[in-house]
Amino acid sequence: MEIFHISAECYPVAKVGGLADVVGALPKYQNKAGHLARVVIPCYDTKFKKENKFECVHWGFVKLGKFNFSFNVLKETTDKLGFELYLIEIPELFDRKEVYGYEDDIERFLSFQIAALDWIIGRNEMPDVINCHDHHTGLIPFMMLYCDKYKKIQNTPSMITIHNGLYQGQFGFDKLHYLPEFDLAHVNVLEWDHCINSLAVAIKCAWAVTTVSPNYLNEINYSANGLESLFNIVRYKSRGILNGIDTEVWDPAKDKMLEKNYSVENFQKGKQQNKETLCTLFNLDPKKPLFSFIGRLLEEKGGDLLPQASALALSENYKEINILILGSGNQEIENHLNSLLVDYKGNYNTFIGYNEELAHLIYAGADFLLMPSRVEPCGLNQMYSLRYGTIPIVRRTGGLKDTVIDFGDDGNGISHDQASVGDICYSIQRAVSLYKDKKHLNEIRQLGMNTDHSWEKACQEYIEVYNLIINKV
Ligand code: GLC
Fold it and tell me: Which reaction(s) does its UniProt entry say it catalyses (predicted)?
């Protein structure tokens, strides 16, 4: 089967969050399973772009209202990622360091979607399915169905995979003329809450809707930033498929970013050595339990709760614990976290920024990983931490609920119900007691390390959904 994944991110080419990890892994496993999966993303000014070779396989023009942009389609020449990677190069719009956050993001991603479809319909064969990811590619299913110039691909099924329904890519009808010509009888399809809502459009027009965990699919029926009723209507074509993790990239036995490799047979020693390196780097005491947070410092991830929870946990435990935070995001949260550095020196540290290598070392060297998310459609960090023998402490929401079971119920982690300072501190307290019972602690670590979160199974579920929609044609 020939599959095109169209996305804004793909690891290791351009990464902001977990979307990149999924788009950088799922296609690889689809190819291993005998399919032909390709990835199309915009061409940003990233390290990967500079350090790798590309050939131009197509060029054209995108017309966006009164603007005209020329574009090239660049193919990575070695296929070393395990899939064919295509970058849509539109220099005026994407030759920038960041993936998102610009005033013209609507124009950027709309041009990207149009250029991607222009190129695909120019090819001899149409793919069997187009898998769009999140709102940045949400207008593709609409354009495939209703735009005159894409008639050739009208009967190709499209699917939208929702990694995060909070972000929806809304814009005003004043930009309607940016879209390629379509039959105006369908203009209503674009509307949700008086705007053009890219995610809502995808949910309406895609032949199938998937979310990145089964529990998140249940949750969005009552909590989806205004799209609840729409999700209820499309339930018949929706499915929650739990993400996998790339067990080749995330393998403590082979991970080159670690100080010491280890497996489930010798994890105690291996983890300790990584912990010591980490503690030396961050002026922490390797004898104390090490709690970490890795991720974006946003309210959505419970980042705003971290400063207060850290301060309270450190004072309640009379400095018997270590906390290390790695992340960036909301400046206020960053400042608040840094303001604790003076009072808790020697027991607390931060690294404000994004650092993939350090993240790997933390998964290996930490004892517990905090994920107090308010919203977590799947969450990958808890799966990485399980694989590295680090016990996740999570709020029971979205995919965290599907993957982490409290050790009180013979599970692999610690979980609590509320995204609150009180619940986080209570869980930390339970972790501190658990840390003293080394036998139990190691049993739970082992359970986590033995859990299979590889992509093989999830990959098969994607194929099942593609088959369902392909057979509808
Ligand atoms: C988004 C979600 C996260 C999910 C990831 C990959 O970043 O917030 O929960 O794991 O996408 O699907």
Answer: [(1->4)-alpha-D-glucosyl](n) + ADP-alpha-D-glucose = [(1->4)-alpha-D-glucosyl](n+1) + ADP + H(+)
